Amino acid sequence: MTVLPDGVSVDAEDGETVLRALSRAGLRYRVGCRRGGCGICKVRLVLGEVAYERPIATTVLSDEERIEGICLSCRAIPITSIAIELQEGDRLRKVLGFAFPA
Amino acid sequence: MSVMRLGFVHIRVTDLEEARNHYSNTMGMKVVHEEPGKLWLKCWDEYDHHSLVLEEGGVGLVKLGYKVQTKDDLERYEKRAQQFGCTTGRVSAGENLTVGDGVAISVPSGHRVELYDEIEYVGTDTGALNPDPWPRDGRGIAAHWIDHALVAADDPGLLERFFTEALDFHVAERAITNISHPEVLGSWMACGESPHDIAVIKGPDAKLHHFAFHLEDWNAILRAGDIMSMDDVSVDIGPTRHGITRGTTIYFFDPSGNRNEVFAGLGYRTFPDFPTVNWTEDQLAKGIVYISRELNEAFTTVFT
Ligand code: FES
Ligand SMILES: [Fe+2]
């Protein structure tokens, strides 16, 4: 998957959420509960498709948002190659300096 | 008599089985009753029938139950809530499992608070006759009891007025913008002598920030942190100490994203004449996380 605006590419394993794949790569971005409850981790799905294995409350992610391509990155599992765009003002941050070549 | 304590928390969870695992195996509560889509639980050191209701579907708070001592208290607080301008209603016995007649109040922040004076007594796991200090079969964190809740309100000052003027709570600590223009940003209020039974911070109306479990001491907080790692619990902040209340703490999330806290240390007692402690906005991070003095973004943005 590709993360905009940084343009960084990361491999996600089968069944892995967007959040987990990015964490595993030593990258951080804006998240809250990491458990699908707060909506802080929303990103825009620019390309590709994601699926949810757990129920998502409509108070957290509305149907309109889904149609607009907003996804809950702590629960969304890529099922194709995807590109996502972080929220305005958010950027990827490297927490493991050696882990990922910027 | 004043309100006695936070008696029960009723929340929504997206997946009941994951929630059951978290609250029973990780937190150590016992499931005391279940129906399709709903669970009732209690902690080992609690003697009332239940202190937590989990309802499948969505996230966030359904209501908070506060226990009072007598029927007269129910009537008096119902009247005073109405005088304050709140909508109230009656709750009949049995609407909440094993709970007697009660009063429902829609408080100024839009949360539903219910007062009741009767609930089935079941006793603690150690009993009330020559008891051991803790049960040998405690699971996971083995939390003692549900201690307090922190809710969000668009106007925390108004909610503070409601709890103090209508329900006789007193303010242990308060967060304000600054001394010259003291707009209330947060308030920690007690009905008994513990530092807080309800707290409010500025945020979206009707939302929950967290509810907290009481643990014995700082060592128990560390042990709880270890168990959270073993069980892959999403941790928000801590272990650390709060400047406000002096309690030691970890904030974390249940599997649906509702924030929990483990909280230890009765930092002081709040008698009715306790002089309110104030924190100014510029020092608020220290008030909340005393050691690092730095709040993460999630603390003020994540509500369910
Ligand atoms: S971080 Fe809370 S919903 Fe994703
Ligand atoms: Fe708390």
TrEMBL record, chain B:
UniProt key word Iron: yes
Keywords per UniProt: Aromatic hydrocarbons catabolism, Dioxygenase, Iron, Metal-binding, Oxidoreductase, Repeat
Pfam families: Diox-like_N, Glyoxalase
Top-level taxon in the UniProt lineage: Bacteria
Family membership noted in the UniProt record: Belongs to the extradiol ring-cleavage dioxygenase family.
Subunit structure: Homotetramer.
Protein name per Swiss-Prot or TrEMBL: Metapyrocatechase
Organism (species): Pseudonocardia asaccharolytica DSM 44247 = NBRC 16224
